[in-house]
Write a structure and sequence with these properties.
This protein is an alpha/beta fold. The protein has helices spanning about 55-65, 85-95, 100-105, 115-125, 135-150, 150-165, 195-200, 220-225, 235-240, 250-255, 280-290, 310-315, 340-350; strands at about 50-55, 75, 170, 180-185, 190-195, 205-210, 230, 260-265, 295-300, 320-325, 355, 360-365.
Length: about 375
């Protein structure tokens, strides 16, 4: 999002490698906003070029797993959040909601003392009786950089430098979005608007974004087109995963990219927006929202599959193979285990798509 009250920026110098604060280079006069080329996808030595789309904890789980397989990562993040600290900043300043972007940056931070310390700073929330209550430090830092540089992408790249991020984090659209859902429940059919409300509403049938034709982030579109793999999910299905299929330029890139496409299913239905939905229902809802999008592989945990034949049929309708792997933490909670999910992605990327069963035999389901 540009800021019309400021003159057009002239360009920002590459901030260079991560260093202690007193060594960080200052932006030149005018605080130009051209972004460094640090996140450009480069097939080869850094691993496959992988683009992960989503938001919140689901995207963080994906990024935590993918960083074990590649340093050539780009996270494309939903920008429809309207609750909490992000919602307050969005409403007051008219900016993109920064919270999901902050979480993605934190998931990709350097795993040394420097990166982990700055990750904790970004994630820290104030607790007070005043207006700072529940604001995340990272949200304020990101928005401050946006105002100084006049560019969301430049600001995110500078925060990425601070954290030693392995990869790049980009918004999926250049303007804040709203989620609008068609809901069918005991009160009949109605419309619910706003990400925070849709997320807790039972009976969601279909969603759309407002505005319906928002400008995509050009760097995000370019990343999808240059990728080797594109990964969707897991995450809040109607409010974090499916909205990426509704930004026209981004959706076109997802359909046209030569990259292979993977879908990662949730470990359980979410109270509210997907309550009562099976694993197969999740796949069918994506297919209904993007019927021409062909998938290559769908990753599911066997413990989260209610009806294997039903899921296999839904996956086949998308043109994909079903990869069954234990990817949960195994303690009864619906949380992905980073290393298990990384192993599942490794198998998917290597084409090892058989279902591991008793005795180690494999069979492929389509």
């Amino acid at each position: 999002m540009t800021h019309p009250s400021r003159p057009e920026p002239a360009g920002v110098a590459d901030p260079g490698p991560v260093r202690p604060p007193d060594a960080l280079p200052a932006a030149p006069a005018g605080r130009a906003a051209a972004t460094p080329d640090r996140g450009a996808l480069q097939p080869g030595v850094r691993g496959p070029a992988v683009v992960a789309l989503g938001g919140g904890h689901g995207l963080s789980a994906t990024l935590g797993a993918l960083r074990h397989l590649s340093q050539n990562l780009t996270a494309i993040v939903t920008v429809a959040d309207d609750g909490g600290s992000s919602g307050r900043l969005r409403e007051e300043l008219g900016v993109l909601p920064p919270g999901d972007l902050r979480m993605a940056l934190s998931a990709l931070c350097d795993d040394g003392e420097w990166g982990l310390t700055w990750r904790d700073v970004l994630q820290h929330r104030f607790a007070s009786d005043g207006p700072l209550n529940n604001h995340a430090v990272g949200n304020l830092l990101i928005v401050a950089l946006w105002e100084l540089l006049g560019s969301e992408v430049a600001g995110l790249d500078w925060v990425g430098r601070l954290l030693g991020v392995r990869g790049r984090v980009l918004p999926m659209a250049a303007v804040p979005l709203e989620i609008e859902a068609r809901v069918a429940d005991g009160r009949g059919t109605r419309t619910v608007r706003g990400q925070s409300l849709v997320a807790v509403t039972h009976g969601v049938e279909h969603v759309r974004i407002l505005p319906e034709d928002p400008p995509a982030c050009p760097e995000a579109v370019a990343a999808v087109r240059a990728a080797d793999w594109v990964v969707l999910g897991p995450g809040s299905w109607y409010t974090s995963v499916l909205p990426h299929l509704m930004v026209p330029a981004l959706a076109q890139a997802l359909h046209e990219t030569p990259a292979r496409r993977a879908l990662t299913l949730n470990l359980s239905a979410q109270v509210g927006e997907t309550e009562g939905m099976s694993a197969a229902d999740h796949v069918r809802s994506l297919h209904e929202h993007a019927p021409d999008l062909r998938l290559d592989v769908v990753v599911a945990d066997p413990a989260a599959v209610e009806n294997l034949d039903d899921l296999s049929t839904a996956v086949g309708a998308c043109g994909a193979s079903l990869l069954l792997r234990q990817v949960g933490v195994g303690d009864g909670t619906a949380r992905h285990d980073t290393l298990r999910l990384a192993a599942a992605f490794r198998d998917a990327f290597a084409g090892v798509l058989g279902d591991v069963g008793a005795g180690g035999e494999e069979s492929t389901r389509r």
